[in-house]
Sequence to fold (133 residues):
Amino acid sequence: MMTSDPIADMLTRIRNANTAKHDTVDVPASKMKVSIAEILLKEGYIKKFDMINVGGINMIHITLKYGIDKNDKIITGLKRISKPGLRIYAGKDELPKVLGGLGIAIISTNKGVMTDKEARKENVGGEVLAFIW
Fold:
């Protein structure tokens, strides 16, 4: 099955698994999705991710992270910003802050996929992919 927005599909799978309190979720792999998973890992929103092969299809096996019990969700929200039908770009001076800096914005720049904080430090703008808080 081909989706028109694979990043939104990834975020929806993570959101649904998190809401259902699952330990893991599998997402079809791509370079962009691996970059997003690396950011989620580095920022502490997921425990780990592994590349697995299921029936000849590469998948990202994401292990979700919870607080003391599964009612304490680390990821409280995920939102896709730039969509295939309406791309949203932000220059280096107008990079968004999520919840006043409590969340992260994932930005696709010409220097790779990074958080809004890293993009400010690198002094670059780009396509605003998603907000996570």
Summary: The beta strands are 24-28, 46-54, 57-64, 78-80, 89-90, 104-109, 112-115, 126-132.
